[in-house]
């Protein structure tokens, strides 16, 4: 299992994005969020077609994570708000993955049961 992004890195990104907002303005940082998100989407699509390397996707993902902090900063929220949203989204994803695994297991059990019934019927 991979190690999650250390909160110290998110804190550094958020602090720098707050400074960037002070330097270049809220509108410029909003546009930067859109630009970096678009570059990540493009890199993923290009990687799927063999036109971008995995490292290029990782680099764009890093930019997107940094500007995610900008998105929080430009609406005058902070890392506590981001952390709460992350926890809620991760909990929702965990629930969906657990449900999927449970359904897959139930289907496997049903298939085994049906296989036994078919064998018994064939005797």
> On the 0-100 scale, what is the average pLDDT?
88
The figure for the number of domains is 2
Please tell me how large the radius of gyration is: 22 Å
The residue fraction in helices comes out at over 70%
The number of helical segments is 4
Q: Give the strand tally.
A: 0
The SSE order reads: HHHH
| Regions with little confidence, pLDDT below 50 for 5+ residues | none
What distance separates the N and C termini?
A: 47 Å
Structural class: mainly alpha
Note the main sheet.
none
Strand content: under 5%
Shape verdict: elongated
Give the arrangement of secondary structure elements.
Layout: H1 7-24, H2 26-48, H3 54-74, H4 79-121
Helix pairs in contact: 1-2, 1-3, 2-3
Report what the structure shows.
- The chain has 123 residues and is mainly alpha-helical.
- The protein has 2 domains: 1-77; 78-123.
- Helix content is 85%, strand content 0%.
- The chain is built from 4 helices and no strands.
- The protein has helices spanning 7-24, 26-48, 54-74, 79-121.
- Helix 1 (7-24) crosses helix 2 (26-48) and helix 1 (7-24) crosses helix 3.
- The chain is elongated.
- The termini are far apart.
- The mean pLDDT is 88.
